[in-house]
Amino acid sequence: MRPDTPAENVDHNAEAARLERTADRYPEDAEALLLQAAAHLELAGDRPAASSLYDRLLAAQEGLENPFLVRALKAANLWEYGHEAEARAIIEGVRVAAPRDPAPWVIVAEALESHDELEQAQETFTEGARVVLTDVAEPPYSTHPLLFGRHRVRRMLGLAHDDWDVLADTLHASPVSLDELHDPKRVWSLGSENPAELEAEISRLRAELGTFRAALSRPFPVAVLHWSAPELTELLTAYPSLSAEYPSHEEHLATIEASLRELAASGTPNLGIVSGTVPSYEAFAASEGMSPAEISLLPQYATTLAARGRAVEWPPQRGATCWCGSGRGYGECHGE
After folding, report:
1. Cis before 315? omega within 30
2. Is 192 left (phi over 0), alpha (psi -120 to 50) or beta?
3. How far apart are CA 124 and CA 317, in angstroms?
4. Is the pTM of this model over 0.90?
5. What is the dihedral of CA 133, 137, 141, 147, to 10 degrees?
6. Beta-carbon neighbour count of residue 154 at 10 Å?
7. Which 8-state DSSP code applies to residue 244?
8. 257, 258, 277, 283: least buried by Cβ within 10 Å?
């Protein structure tokens, strides 16, 4: 889908079919591409077809980067076309698994919220916050929707603010406060004949739209390229001149961590890491009409992988394994 294509002019079924064909050509990007295809099918109203794509992904679960995200999306979709019992079972499974990624928590909690299960939604948002934010000094951008959603549901339930609600207010950058945006009485102002109330509601809606647009326009991460030890060996065997860039695997890993810390210290937001493979890199070089031995091609390859949704957030969430692939926790590996 072209970025300048108006949403109302999108043929969602055709776009889903295009993404499926692209996924067949680039299996390493299949997860991100098929999730986009499923979203288009949901927008087209073909929810059973979207469920089939989620099932296709889950059938290859061992290769999935975000299996709980896929499960959460499947549950939300199922509930929308009458499969409530199955959706609830999947949601409960996601909650029990307690993933470190905030996205599945947000999706299942919002599914509960949209079906007026406010108490369960509040509990789910709170569980998710407890899992991903306990002992975290500065909540990453990816966790903001978790805090904002929790604030919204608690406001609807009439619950008093707690520390996480205060944190959500602090993180919220809009000129209109979260308390005002999440005021349960807002629905009545839409039917008001009072010009002042209507003007205030228009201001709130503009603020919400601005926040939504900002989230959509958020750029893909500033990503640093990572090679696993076997991939780096294969790369240097095929293209020895790249040894100047990669003297050793240990130095390569140390350089990645140092570069990311330097970027973070300079105030660069939204940092990530992308992992390359030699076949993928060679295909990219061919598409650019350049030799894989060109060092200048490496950052372009990293940017392309990030744009395809291949970047993982840096630093990793609390308790997550290190990005380097050692299997150790980040805190006891490169996060020391």
Report:
1. yes
2. beta
3. 19
4. no
5. 40
6. 22
7. G
8. 258
Dist. CA 152–CA 177, nearest whole Å: 12
Burial of 10 (0-12, 13-18, 19+ CB in 10 A): middle
- Structure confidence by residue, pLDDT tens digits, 217-235: 455 678 899 999 999 999 9
Report helix angle 144-156 to 102-114, nearest 10.
Answer: 30
Q: How far apart are CA 242 and CA 234, in angstroms?
A: 11
DSSP-assigned beta bridge partners for residue 275? 226
Residue 320, Ramachandran bin (φ over 0: left; ψ between -120 and 50: alpha; else beta): beta
Q: Which pair of structure tokens corresponds to residue 172? A: 């919220």
SS (H, E, C) 35-49: HHHHHHHHHCCCHHH
Residue 7: pLDDT above 60?
Answer: no
Give the helix ranges, DSSP H, for 115-226. 118-133, 144-156, 163-171, 178-181, 186-189, 195-216
**DSSP track, 156-168:** HTTPPP-HHHHHH
- Rounded to whole angstroms, how far apart are CA atoms 17 and 55? 16
Nearest to 229 by CA among 180, 289, 275, 270: 275
- For 81, 131, 168, 169, 316, the CA distances from 139, given in Å and listed in that order, are 35, 12, 10, 13, 12
Predicted confidence (pLDDT) per residue in 264-302, tens digit? 888 887 888 999 999 889 988 888 889 999 999 999 899
Angstrom distance (rounded) from CA 221 to CA 306: 6
Contact between residue 111 and residue 75 where contact means Cβ atoms under 8 Å apart: yes
Helix, strand or coil for residue 227?
coil
- Edge-to-edge strands of the sheet including 312-313? 222-226, 271-275, 312-313
Residue 62 contacts residue 35 (beta carbons within 8 Å): no
* Cα 20 off chain centre by: 20
